[in-house]
Predict the structure.
Amino acid sequence: MGAASTSKRRRPSAVPWVLLGLWIAVLALAGPFAGKLGDVQRDRAVDYLPANADSTQVAEIQERLPGGETTELVLVYHRDAGLTPADRSTAADQVAALDRELKLVETPRGVPSKDGTTLMYPVASTGPGTDEELRDTFVNDVRDIAEAPEGTAGADGLSVEVGGSGALATDASEVYTSLDGPLLYTTVAVVAVLLVLIYRSPLLWLVPLVVAGVANYLSMGVAYGLNQAFGTTVSGQSSGIMTILVFGAGTDYALLIVARYREELRRVERPYDAMAAALRGCGPAVVASSGTVAAGLFCLLAADLNSSRGMGPLGAVGVLCALVAMMTLLPALLVVLGRRVFWPLVPAFGSEPKKRKSLFQSMGSSAGRRPRTVLAAGAVLLGALALGAFALPGNLKQEDSFTSKPDSIAAMETLAAAYPERGTQPISVIAPTDRAASALADARAVPGVDSAERGRSSRQWTEISVVAKAAPQSAAETATLERLRERLDARGAHVGGPSAEQLDLKDTNRRDMRVVVPIVLAAVLLILVVLLRALVAPLLLLLAVVAVWGASLGIAGLVFGPVFGFEGTDPGLGLLSFCFLVALGVDYGIFLMHRMREECLAGAETGPAALTALRTTGGVIASAGLVLAATFAVLTNMPLVQLVELGFVIAVGVLLDTFLVRTYLVTSASLALGRKVWWPGPLAKAPRGPAPAPEADGPELVRAP
């Protein structure tokens, strides 16, 4: 009977196979939806603009005017030595062909520059409407027709460029569309290389990578479902960030689970039981970690900027899908594959890991000798680095937003040089039709306005096109925009257009910082308090990640202009980098402090517990930090400056958090505070009886003060 019972207890559990079957069913259901995510991805202006700003109202009303949304272009004919009669004839013939073959609002009229080198033709069409594919087709058709004739190339040859808001939108859309493949492949390659180096196994590295790929596929299906159910905005930027988070955060969770599983395999005979023990040990930290990231990203729903509001849910979906996959599919695969998956470094039952002094044991020892000195020095270093944020370049202009110059940007630069005395990018005004005449008169009377013309009209709204005297996005044009809004507000009019959109983006990001940042801090603090049953430790972790964010922006300020040559900083960089660095940075703090709390609950003093936690989790945290930093660093290879800037700041912040804050500052602060770090929880009270001795293989000579 006893033998039979033992045999029954040792029979392999069916749970892993059931989980694998469930995942096959889930992927079969999610597959059709995941493939449709690209169909609902939108990169129109209204998908990025502030929700309630004037420029957003203008864009939405223009879509409802007769003919729908207008696609505005500018044809730019330029010759350095001056346009010839043949050049002007070529331009006239091409514009006439455009008017015949494409649905234009009106026949374009040429505007020559004073120096005779440039001729521009404003072109507008309502044919594409709000359909991005039709818009891109229209822009490309214009570019096909408007080409420099053969034999005019050369240093002083005729150049023909197509600019304007429509061309800029098409170029940006092509960049975002091209991100999907390279971003995914590069991320997978980077994660694979790092996992091979970390695990030094021909098979083990593949398991987390496959699971992360499955999680990414699931997140695409869920994101499509959110779009269909709630209208969640899906843009190229948000879908790309979602992929980065799935692979980065998911691999971090896998590293922690696999490391704990390896520990348990030395103490527990059956892989199933070892995995159950591992999930009991590290599961709460992983769940709290992902919950913190998801909560921080969901706080972006409080943002007024459409692009930020859309990124919040998609980022949270990516993290939660990674969590579900790593907590279910990864354990199931590891249990089914058994110990052999670790070959050639197989953790045998009953074996002991090699006793060797690790890098993190050495770091702990150095922090433990003079914890207050280390803490003060680290704080001074982070503060000094944060001062570099004052050197960040100003707001990023449209013409500076690409790392390589597309045709639309070249056209903007040509226009700016050839027409310094007037604006070359119309300001769009939408006024109530019954007050359109007075609004038109008011617009023409505003200082800084060169001209204003009435455009399309419906029973409710009338379009007015205003041209400023100053160059687009200059300080003088911004002043004209503000005067227009002040004058026309009494008429119930809205002022929009590309320059107004950039102004609204800057103002809205400033507002979102004031609103979202406190919400993120409160949400993250609440989760940490619940997890750690204390107040001081959560405040310590939160203060650390905020310091890392400031230092990361400071480093960015030192390199963006002098090293990368960036002419501006994306207005949303501060808010997005804050949300990501606070949420993701707290991850590692959770891993470290949760293990420290385990040791304290087992009877250890806070000092030895902090050093034991650093020794046991330091390698995992370092590996996870490298993987996460590398995945975000993939963005620095993308062709959009705002993605490069975001990827750089987050990658630098993760590395600072991993190798400076977690290893030195949090550990030294824990040593300096002792049991006070757990105040006001029960662990803050002194134990009754003698404290247990520190572990023999740890840095036992280091004691908390």
